[in-house]
Specification:
single chain, alpha/beta, Rossmann fold, two-stranded antiparallel ribbon, 13 strands, disordered C terminus
Length: 244
């Protein structure tokens, strides 16, 4: 079973962190909230959460590590030498490392961005060490890394994580040859073109796929109905489709 660790550090961005955990768990992905220093962690807006476990210096048990944003949370992760070492090991093992908003600076501190195309919150770019090629896109995937630009695209980022997991995961059970594609399937709707991107693979459980699609449509229906988020679909046209 695929396991995901979402690192929760003091000052984490609540909207990003909880959205990521919510979407992954709705899709029945085993997702642990890992407190950086303690089990109970307060966010950037004083919303405290109780994590499933506390970081013990190793992330070997996980197939994907997700770093939520938040200025305080990102700084705490960036300055934690144990986490930086664990991220280097995760990258060496070819596992997923994903970051949104300010969190790419953590990957930069680990010196893992040098040859990557990435995105982050624009005002954080000057704090990123050893950066590769920054692009002004909402979601970017390069190799074993997925990046999101900010809290407004937390849902799009979460679905990009699902796309990545379903492509990388392996399921030994035989399936009908006509039931799936061997690679990414870019399905575009007229309203939310690249945001409706999905990936089909032999490992994608039909039940999970249905739930993810329903939740995806519900999410963007809500976004379209809200004036506050009406600009998300238009801006999300910069979404970079998944690539290996």
């Amino acid at each position: 079973m695929v396991r995901v660790a979402v690192i929760v550090a003091p000052g984490y961005e609540e909207g990003e962190t909880l959205t990521i955990v919510d979407v992954l768990r709705r899709a029945e992905v085993a997702c642990d909230m890992v407190g950086l220093d303690a089990r109970e962690v307060a966010g950037a807006h004083d919303a405290a959460v109780r994590c499933d476990t506390v970081f013990d210096g190793s992330l070997d048990a996980y197939d994907m590590v997700v770093l939520p944003g938040g200025y305080g949370g990102s700084a705490a992760m960036r300055d934690n030498e144990g986490l930086i070492a664990a991220l280097k090991q995760t990258d060496a093992a070819g596992k997923w490392i994903c970051a949104i908003c300010a969190a790419p600076e953590v990957i930069g501190r680990a010196n893992l961005l040098a040859n990557k195309t990435f995105t982050c919150y624009p005002t954080v770019l000057e704090r990123v060490e050893n950066p590769g090629a920054w692009v002004d896109r909402v979601i970017v995937r390069d190799g074993n890394m997925v990046f999101g630009q900010g809290p407004a695209v937390a849902y799009a980022f979460s679905f990009a994580l699902l796309d990545a997991l379903h492509q990388r995961d392996k399921d030994p059970r035989p399936r009908d040859k006509g039931a799936h594609h061997n690679g990414p399937c870019q399905r575009e709707s007229p309203r939310f073109r690249t945001l409706s991107t999905c990936t089909r693979s032999p490992s994608l459980c039909p039940t999970v796929a249905r739930r993810a699609r329903r939740f995806r449509l519900w999410t963007f229906s809500c976004a379209r109905a809200s004036r506050a988020t009406a600009s998300i679909p238009a801006r999300a046209r910069g979404y970079v489709p998944c690539r290996a």
